[in-house]
Amino acid sequence: MDELRDRVVVVTGGSRGMGREMVLAFAERGARVVVASRKLDNCAAVADEVRGRFGVEALPVAFNVSDWGECDRLVETVYGEFGRVDVLVNNAGLSPLYPSLEEVSEALFDKVVAVNLRGPFRLTAAVGSRMVRDGGGSIVNIGSIEAVRPSPQALPYAAAKAGLHVLSEGFAQAFGPTVRVNTVQAGPFLTDIAEHWPEGVRESMEAQVALGRCGDPREIVGAVLYFATSASSYATGAVLRVDGGWR
């Protein structure tokens, strides 16, 4: 993991949950990290923690991944500060609850697709093209078991995540051989979002995984580090399941 020292790593949705754990893991290994999420105060708090604990550079950036222009602004901000990006982790996601499929509004559907698919497309296109120009890099998309095992309770999200899997493979072809693009297919993790799951959802999920439990956010880190480094040098367009053995 010494190869991450002084690398520039951008993590969207990096201020909490799995994203925060990724930021801390990269910083612990000497990377310069960009904490990108909607609320600047939350990003700044994580950046301060990184500087205090690991003594590396940390840049907090507030942006809305669903906004095309905001994605471009994030890219320009990062390149203006560091001059390059070595690793991009498209982690930001959204899966709002809805009463029924019939009651899914156009606005909700569009927002879910914008956050989980459109934003990652724009960031990957913009950053990946520059990575090719600069000689290489790694892009890691955080997918979901919903992409292949969709549930009625999260169908727009599942469709967007399925699209994200397609983007990973397509961009891998577009940006190879110097830039690798891969997907970590996540199962149920106990982030702060899990606190708002309806009653019985956690128990239902845990009954469907071979390990019998939901994941701790720190348990996503190993897969992300694998794809971010030369440990996965012959992997691109790949999907790695980190879902506890979802049935």
TrEMBL record:
Gene3D superfamilies: NAD(P)-binding Rossmann-like Domain. Its EC number is 1.1.1.47. The keyword DNA-binding does not apply. It is an enzyme of class 1 (oxidoreductase). Keywords: Oxidoreductase. It holds the Pfam family adh_short_C2. GO terms for molecular function: glucose 1-dehydrogenase [NAD(P)+] activity. Belongs to the short-chain dehydrogenases/reductases (SDR) family. NCBIfam families: PRK07231.1. This is Glucose 1-dehydrogenase. It comes from Pseudonocardia broussonetiae.
